[in-house]
Amino acid sequence: AQSVTQLGSHVSVSEGALVLLRCNYSSSVPPYLFWYVQYPNQGLQLLLKYTTGATLVKGINGFEAEFKKSETSFHLTKPSAHMSDAAEYFCAVSDQGSGGSNYKLTFGKGTLLTVNP
Amino acid sequence: KAGVTQTPRYLIKTRGQQVTLSCSPISGHRSVSWYQQTPGQGLQFLFEYFSETQRNKGNFPGRFSGRQFSNSRSEMNVSTLELGDSALYLCASSLVRLGHYEQYFGPGTRLTVT
Fold it and tell me: Most buried pick, A27, B30, B90, B94, via CB within 10 A?
């Protein structure tokens, strides 16, 4: 069974500081990995994804993440936090289903990011 | 291109009633998945439909059911509502094509059971 662990349910940074949100996964097969962001009273917005190829992936709003197989990690970073980044962030994993048949996402518990002025 | 739409956005029901939620996927997307989000359990997978067939199901009781229509629109139904069913129900659609495995989420339906 797959699982996702997000270290830190709440992360607080100052505006302009580095953002680092941690995600570790467990999967018996090569995973597809995703980061989503959720603003209050909204659905989830895809930030970035890793499927195959380059292990450093860039997403929207200046975020990027690096897939490290040896560490089973997929941490999310942004060099400089902005007030608008305050939201809840979710890491998710899915199996590489044959023919793309598996679209079941397993989510971490989420990390609430607070950005202080 | 329009995003995933869900109706209604908010719903209040009484324990024991049943409810139907609707989801319209992004045009061209043929897979629709449903998730339940609660403060205690987080985001949990309910089920996924593709070409009107349920391909995958999460660990939820039989009171939770769904279906998909030929135009890819999907509905989920919860019968005999319990207080614990209060949650944000999210629908997501996917383009079923090699290399495209991301899901795009709608704004959700906030269900309150009293």
Answer: B90
User: For chains A and B, what is the number of CB pairs under 8 angstroms?
Assistant: 64
**DSSP label at residue B104:** E
Per-residue pLDDT of chain A (117 residues; tens, 9 = 90+): 789 999 999 999 999 999 999 999 998 777 889 999 999 989 999 999 998 888 899 999 999 999 999 999 999 999 999 999 999 999 999 876 554 446 789 999 999 999 999
